[in-house]
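Quick start: read one record
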Amino acid sequence: MALYNRDSKLSEAIMAHPNLIPVVNRLGIRLGVGDGTICSVCDCCNIDADFFLSVINTFLDEEYFPSDAAGTFSLEKTVDYLQKTNNYYLKVQLPNIDRHFGSLVERSGSDNNLHLLRKFYQDMRSQLTECLSYDEDILFPALTGGSADSVEFNSGYSEVEEKLHDLLFFFVEHLKGEYDLNLCTAVVTAVFSLEKDVCQNNRIRNRILRPLVESLRQS
């Protein structure tokens, strides 16, 4: 069952789930939404309300699946949303973690195992950026150019999701030595945000984009 519908107030949805802020930004809505319903805010911003609702409900609820995915989602809209998501990873989330992780290592001395955790993060980061490059250079141009039959989906996102979970586990159970508590909290919070985002957008890829592509291949 959907968490939100056309008559739900968008401000209440955002207040209940602050992690929706970058999602609604990608969909074309900025903060300062007033007390309007999702339908009225989407109308003011010239956004398809059904598409908006399906994205945020899929993002928030692991069990949710839009009842009319083929009718609600188009390949163009879905690719556009995922392109904006990838851009957010590259320009906001990863640089934020880089900055905090660098400061954490610099200000925590050497009596810890942060260098090992940072190496693990950097390996994961490289794999994620490879996935993003594949999307930008191969997958998305092929899909929007009508060449869906010629490309395969990158399986690396599932591995990135697992590595982000492992990194959080390493911080929680295996962090040793002295370290700056505030900066450590900032790193863990930022990693958790990225892990949740990757996980939720993997659902959009698997539940929405893949079926759209398969339907094109069969038509």
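The chain has a mean pLDDT of 90.
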